[in-house]
Amino acid sequence: MEKALLVGLHLPRLKRKELDNSISELERLTKTAGATPEQTIIQKRDSIDPAYLIGQGKAFEIKEIARTNKIDTIIFDEDLKPVQQRNLQEIIEKKIIGRTRLILDIFAQRAHTKEGKLQIELAQLNYLLPRITERYGRFEQQIGGIGTRGPGERKLEYEKRGIRDRIAHLNREIESIRMHRDIARSKRIESGHPTVAIVGYTNSGKSTLLNALTKSNSVYADDKFFATLDPTTRQVRLPGGREILFTDTVGFIRKLPHMLVAAFRATLEEVTSSHCILHLIDISQPDHLNQMQTTLNVLKELKADHIPIVPAYNKADLIPKDQRNKLVRKGLLLVSSRTGEGINKLLQRIEQIIIPKLNLHRLTLPYEKSRYLAKIFGLGLIKKQSYTDKGIKIQIRSSSEQWEKIKSLIK
User: Fold this and answer.
1) Domain 359-410 is in which class?
2) What is the third-level CATH fold of 192-354?
3) Number of other residues whose CB lies within 10 A of the CB of residue 97
4) Model pTM above 0.70
5) Coil vs helix vs strand at 339
């Protein structure tokens, strides 16, 4: 297995606890990518070195440590600029990877659908384009391993013009996917089913929660960073009887690469078009407040922060009972995707937000129009139904908007 040396940068504005959390996360990302973190080095500086990030002297020190310990890869907890990466590579003569490149590599491993692979390839090429040089490309291909997987590896021999052409092609492909998503989304809106987007930090338990809501195991869930990339939508019945749609989305992470947000915009539009956002927070994580803020920052970047948000604190079964009781007294909504704790309360809170005031309406549906019965059922809550000589008599609770749609069907 590939041996990695992790490098963190401690700047004055960064608290030590925040740095420790970030390094701990980098270790897990490294393991997820398939390497073994052998050693960690923290460089304390007043400012970032524009040429070497950590300074030239520290770079030579890392070179010696890597040589002595037979380290294959140096992974930095920062995004490296092209000049910094080239300079570090020339001194250390080992594979140099920044945090962004590491995350892209993990995404390349996790992408299984055509849409996911297109989005990852676009993000990789946008990242690699300013870094492509003849020397850099040859060196990377010779070494292989983490940071070189996925479509990006095959594109390193492309000239920059060829890469730009490929990027333009990928943008057209993804735009076509976005249009198909818009059509599917329009059909869902026409059906009258409200939608809830589940968002949160990676590994906060979104897929497990969706399985708990649907009482099934149809959605892949695993205790890994970015276990799922592709959005999954499932129908869920609320306590009041109304059916709505929940969509599981890609997880967020601190220092999330901007090219990933751009590449996954078609997918993330599932969030921006939802009626409500369920923000899932892993309460068992000591750093959960920073993780929560990271998600809120991404929602703001997506211009989705105006949508009603329901915060739910997941993995409540992993914290002590006295802490749980204290958080409940504060009014926090605690849930457990694994045990089912708090699921009903969560659905009730969502129901209060997205289900508008429902009025009772009466109608008679002629038998020749009985084919519309299923659509009517989807547009409200049926309270009473009976059969007469003139047709099907129905009492239904629905919003004003839904009632107008029902009237247009039976005219």
Assistant:
1) alpha beta
2) Rossmann fold (3.40.50)
3) 25
4) yes
5) coil
